[in-house]
């Protein structure tokens, strides 16, 4: 576990392995521990940096709104500290939004991009309203709101089979402070639409979606990669591919990273 200070805020990350760099960015209510199962296979050929984003894991809150650009700048600070010039970015859900913001701000540093259960599009009005409702709910009853949020990310058919994994994810989510939860929701709500980046950037890109994702409409989300060079990978399950489709996800990511092996 490593720490660095950015704008008077302690940032937490891990740095393992050697080779071309891979940056792992977790989703909302997650932290860098979500990658533990995947890291051992990645570190065989790559230098893997897993980061706790602002207000999550062991990284402190920086304010009351954490924009995706704020998060991207904090990631950039860590990479500068590590003297890394380029990396492949893999972002789950909110981590994908951060990776896209990073690609917009620092395009020369992005060697490749994997959006996992994520989208390049901005929030719809309905989604923004849902975030406002979620903020009210978590202020009223923190534990209940988080418990419901986590189980709702899984394909309904998997909720019994993956009860242990859901409980594990819930426990990690409960480590997220209220300020971090609200700041991230506010930041996601006002994020830019970055779909243009899927059409205009030249680095390799992949979009991983679940057909039964309760958060992202599969049919609608996949249209953003039509007529692009983005590789689309579809799993049969929900928003939590790292739990629901663990083995297939590992194979797909290792396949993508073969392009960057030294």
From TrEMBL:
Domain of life of the native organism: Bacteria
MF-aspect GO terms: hydrolase activity
Family annotation (InterPro entries): AB_hydrolase_1 (IPR000073), AB_hydrolase_fold (IPR029058), AB_hydrolase_sf (IPR050266)
Alphabetical UniProt keywords: Hydrolase
Boundaries of every AB hydrolase-1 domain copy: 21-245
Hydrolase in keyword set: yes
PANTHER family, sorted: HYDROLASE, PUTATIVE (AFU_ORTHOLOGUE AFUA_2G14860)-RELATED, MONOACYLGLYCEROL LIPASE
Protein name: Alpha/beta fold hydrolase
Organism: Flavobacterium chuncheonense
């Amino acid at each position: 576990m490593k720490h660095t200070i950015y704008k008077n805020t302690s940032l937490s990350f891990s740095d393992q392995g050697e080779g071309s760099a891979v940056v792992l960015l977790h989703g909302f209510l997650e932290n860098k521990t979500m990658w533990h199962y995947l890291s051992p296979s990645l570190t065989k050929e790559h230098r893997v940096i897993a980061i706790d984003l602002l207000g999550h894991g062991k990284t402190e809150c920086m304010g009351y709104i954490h924009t995706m650009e704020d998060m991207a700048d904090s990631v950039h600070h860590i990479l500068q500290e590590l003297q890394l010039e380029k990396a492949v970015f893999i972002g789950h859900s909110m981590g994908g939004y951060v990776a896209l913001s990073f690609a917009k701000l620092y395009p020369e540093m992005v060697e490749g991009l994997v959006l996992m259960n994520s989208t390049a599009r901005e929030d719809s009005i309905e989604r923004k309203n849902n975030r406002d409702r979620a903020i009210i709910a978590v202020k009223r009853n923190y534990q209940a709101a988080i418990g419901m949020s986590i189980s709702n990310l899984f394909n309904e058919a998997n909720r019994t089979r993956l009860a242990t994994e859901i409980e594990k994810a819930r426990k990690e989510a409960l480590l997220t402070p209220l300020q971090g939860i609200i700041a991230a929701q506010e930041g996601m709500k006002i994020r830019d639409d970055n779909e243009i980046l899927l059409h205009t950037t030249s680095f390799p890109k992949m979009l991983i979606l679940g057909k039964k994702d309760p958060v992202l409409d599969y049919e609608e989300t996949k249209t953003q990669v039509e007529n692009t060079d983005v590789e689309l990978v579809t799993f049969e399950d929900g928003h939590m591919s790292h739990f629901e489709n663990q083995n297939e996800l590992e194979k797909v990511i290792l396949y993508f990273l073969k392009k960057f092996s030294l």
